[in-house]
Each structure stands twice: as structure tokens, then as C-alpha cells.
Amino acid sequence: LADQEVCRARFSAPPLLGCQPCESATLKGCPTKNKKNDAGFTLIEIIITIVLLSIISGIAAMIILQGAKAYSDEQSRSEVYYQAKLAVERVTREARMIRSCGDITLPVGNPFNVLTFNKIAGTAVTFDAATGDLTLGGNILAKNVSANPFTFLDRSGNPSITCVTPNDIWYLQIDLTDTQGSETLEIRTRVHPMNF
């Protein structure tokens, strides 16, 4: 009761002290009639926050998507390079072991899809790219390869499919174009069999 009397006496003081008289005065002061309630956010503040967060989220999503796309592209590039390089190395290694020009099954056209020959040990080897995949004895070496990747060349580098003289087939040229997704890799190499 004494506190209420002090409060009333304090707030009923003349306006020079900065306080107006009020009926519900407390020790903290007198509530004003025009005072805003600052306990929450306005609708405009919430809308501005949502818009700003949307813009920031959109930018962050674009950066993340670009990183994911770069990673995916690098994976495709790496896969096509690995597959094509491995296939060409395998054909090159086996073609070096052709026993003689007479051990090659000569193609009808040049360039061609199917390369068949006997190695030094007499083992028959067949590389086939007719189906779009380069295979060795039914095992896939590379997928989605170009048609006609093999060409026989004579000693001067001209296409040849005869074995009349020793110089008629001097090189095997391999032109392999491998495609994986949006990535394409072209590899060209020439092989000279050891026994020619």
C-alpha cells in the first residue's frame, strides 16, 4: 500500500518532471496511450526477409548446381578417356603380335569394322566394332565407338588390303572415336607388327 502511495505521488507530480498522471501507474512508470507494441514483426518486415532469403537461396543453388555439373562433366570426360585409351592400347598390343601378313583375315573394304588375325603363338584374335561397341572375343573394351576404326596401310601410308609383297600391309591404323554422354574423344595411332 505504501508503494502505491509513492507511485501515485510520483506520477501525479507536475508535468515538468516528464510524467503524466495515470491510474494504472507502477514503479516502472506510467503506460502511455500512444506507445506501439514492439514485441513482434510487421508483415512488411516478414515479406522483405522472405524475398531476401529467396534471392540468397537461388544464388546458392546455382553455385551448387554448377559445381555438381562440373563434377559430372569431369566424370564423363574421365570415363571416355579411360575407356578409349584402354581399348586402343589393347588393340595396339595385340596387333604388334600379328605373325605375318598371311595370318590376317583381309577385309573387303578399307577402313573396316572387324579385325581378325593370328598372333605369333597361333592364337586367333578378333576385334569387332560392327555393333557400335569395340569387343575382343565378345568382351566389351569400349562402348559407343565409331564405325570402321581399322585401316591397313602400306609402307608409304596409303590404304591397302593386299598381301602380295611384304610392304603391302605395313601399318594398322586405329581411328577410335568414343562417346560417353556429351563427351567425345578421338584417338588415332598406327601400329607396325613386329614380324613384318
Structure write-up:
With 196 residues, the chain is α+β, with helices and mostly antiparallel strands. Helix content is 32%, strand content 21%. It is built from 2 helices and 8 strands. It has helices at residues 2-11, 43-95; strands spanning 104-105, 114-118, 124-128, 134-136, 139-142, 150-153, 171-180, 183-191. Strands 1-2-3-4-5 form a 5-stranded antiparallel sheet, with helices on one face. Strand 4 and strand 5 form a beta hairpin. The model is unreliable at 15-19 (pLDDT under 50).
Radius of gyration: 42 Å
Distance between the termini: 121 Å
Which residues sit in consecutive blocks of at least 5 with pLDDT less than 50?
A: 15-19
Strand numbers in spatial order across the main sheet: 1-2-3-4-5
Residues in helix, %: 25-40%
Oligomer: single chain
% residues in beta strands:
15-25%
Structural class: alpha+beta
SSE run:
HHEEEEEEEE
Q: Characterize the main sheet.
A: 5 strands, antiparallel
**Per the principal axes of the C-alpha atoms, what is the gross shape?**
rod-shaped
Integer average pLDDT: 83
State the helix count.
2
Could you tell me the number of beta strands?
8
